[in-house]
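REQUEST ID: PR-0412
SUBMITTED BY: lab tech R.K.
PRIORITY: routine
TASK: structure prediction, single protein chain
INPUT:
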Amino acid sequence: MKRVIMFSLVIALVLVSSSAFATPQQFAGMLGEVAIGVDVPDNWRAVKATTRNTADNTEVPCVRLTDKSDADRWFWIFLAYAQNDQGSALTLRQVGNNMLAAYGNRNSRRVDDETNDGYYSFEFFVDAVAYRYIFMGKDYDSRIKAGYYLTYQYSYDTLDSTEVNAIMSSITIDGAGGTTGGGNNTGGRTGTNGGTGTDGGTAAGGSSGGGCNSGAAALVLLLAGLAFFRKR
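STATUS: complete
OUTPUT:
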């Protein structure tokens, strides 16, 4: 009986420790009249803010995640119109090329471009620090309404691929998870080679977000419980 109680306590501690890794939050009233949900890593803050629509430069709502310990570690999520200011539809390649031209003085470059125009990714640099944009349309992710695209924007050089993928894969639109129409992804990806320096970019791999540490603590607790059983 004591063993059962002790094992239950260990499992409870594991679950508590694991849940500390991220807290699900929902943000309603996004562009397209949808709600965006995301698992916010431990020691991070998520707020609803505004940013520039990359199609026509108007203000649109976004979810802004920032590491409480390091403001240079951030991740933004928002929906934007896939059209110009005259209302004409733009392909994601056109949007991406427009962004490349806009950030040409910051050494912008394409990182990834799906052949079906459903996915486009590029980087630009500010003081030698890489920032990455990822665009997804309805052809790539069935959750996105026609005429819109989902955008991730993040400080590429300060986040490692594990952190980026954990945030991306947790994003929901109106409660729907990351299933894609074309079967190409599970809610997003970091580019051809992940977060490890595509096309010459670099990744500092900062760890102050605390996500991996929580998972490691949970594993230690689980192993401790198993060791207790062996001794008994």
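NOTES: Strands lie at 22-30, 34-41, 44-52, 59-67, 70-81, 109-113, 119-126, 129-136, 148-155, 172-173.
REVIEWED BY: pending
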